[in-house]
């Protein structure tokens, strides 16, 4: 998808900072694409972008209204429709990472047709996808896996790509979610792929490559999440990962949106991930732990990371606070030397 920018990022109405993770990711990794933000009330967390209404954004040259919200089920709230129609009538395209197709809402489809603007449904692809084969591919692959959703898998994968490229390594980010697609410019939103084709889609996303090239596959869901384990399994088999990085959020006690479900143990996720990954790669190995320590002070975070590193014998870091150099060091030690 070639989505025109600059973007006006629509942040919606939720007070939950995780609800705007799509917009936050775009702004963090591609700030040059972002003109401003549209918040529907003052309680919505800010990205410290200018607050701009749709008409002003269109006059100032915004090309696409990006629905930067994420919610359980990926549904489009009916009261968001007038904002989308207004943007289309003002000559802006609209991009959405929700499961619900934009054109399935008659008012949106009609406005897009009349204005000649484009609707980008990032979770829906017209490509014909194969089923997975498990046939070994050339090159090297890394997959991020997590104890839950929204624990930093995309951020960690992008941070690894940036650091590896700075070290002179050949590394490619493989986007598997709507935010990653907006950041990278291409990819497949695997959580909207029919389950039989998730592994095959992942194989297509990370095809044969040069022996020294690393394809860094963005993880989704969690193996022990009762709602989203299936997408993780498909990625795990399709990616055929040589290397794995575990992502976790400190002080998260329950699975997001499921307060009756305790967060899985890190060791259980790691053991299960390795065991299942061996179906398509005989020797997958964890090379690091990426931990969201935003709920801890910096001193608390350092002590927590040190304890995890000692417990698992792996480098542990918070990619936001401390970068991922130690994980890349270990990756090079394990695979490049």
From TrEMBL:
Under the heading SUPFAM superfamilies, the entry gives: P-loop containing nucleoside triphosphate hydrolases
Q: Which residues form the D-glutamate N-acetyltransferase-like N-terminal domain?
A: 47-124
Task: Please state every residue range assigned to the domain named D-glutamate N-acetyltransferase-like C-terminal.
Answer: 131-328
NCBIfam families reported for this sequence = DgcN
Protein name, as recorded: EBNA-1 nuclear protein
């Amino acid at each position: 998808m070639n989505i025109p920018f600059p973007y006006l990022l629509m942040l919606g109405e939720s007070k939950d900072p995780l609800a705007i993770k799509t917009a936050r990711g775009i702004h963090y990794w591609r700030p040059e694409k972002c003109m401003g933000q549209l918040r529907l009330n003052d309680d919505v967390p800010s990205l410290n972008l200018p607050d701009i209404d749709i008409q002003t954004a269109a006059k100032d040259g915004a090309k696409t209204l990006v629905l930067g919200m994420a919610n359980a089920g990926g549904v489009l709230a009916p009261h968001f429709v007038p904002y989308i129609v207004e943007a289309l009538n003002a000559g802006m395209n609209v991009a959405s990472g929700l499961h619900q197709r934009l054109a399935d809402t008659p008012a949106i489809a009609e406005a897009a047709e009349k204005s000649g603007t484009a609707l980008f449904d990032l979770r829906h692809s017209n490509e014909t996808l194969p089923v997975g084969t498990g046939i070994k591919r050339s090159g090297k692959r890394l997959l991020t896996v997590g104890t839950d959703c929204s624990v930093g898998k995309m951020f960690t994968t992008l941070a690894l790509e940036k650091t590896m490229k700075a070290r002179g390594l050949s590394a490619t980010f493989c986007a598997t979610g709507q935010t990653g697609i907006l950041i990278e410019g291409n990819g497949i939103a695997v959580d909207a792929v029919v389950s039989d084709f998730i592994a095959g889609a992942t194989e297509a996303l990370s095809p044969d490559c040069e022996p020294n090239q690393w394809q860094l596959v963005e993880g989704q869901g969690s193996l022990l999440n009762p709602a989203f384990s299936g997408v993780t399994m498909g990625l795990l088999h399709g990616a055929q990962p040589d290397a794995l990085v575990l992502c976790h959020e400190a002080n998260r006690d329950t699975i997001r949106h499921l307060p009756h479900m305790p967060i899985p143990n890190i060791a259980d996720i790691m053991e299960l991930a390795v065991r299942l990954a061996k179906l398509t790669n005989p020797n997958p190995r964890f090379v690091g732990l990426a931990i969201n320590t935003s709920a801890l002070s910096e001193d608390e975070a350092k002590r927590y990371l040190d304890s995890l590193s000692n417990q698992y014998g792996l480098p542990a870091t918070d990619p936001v606070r401390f970068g991922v150099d130690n994980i890349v060091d270990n990756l090079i030690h394990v695979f490049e030397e």
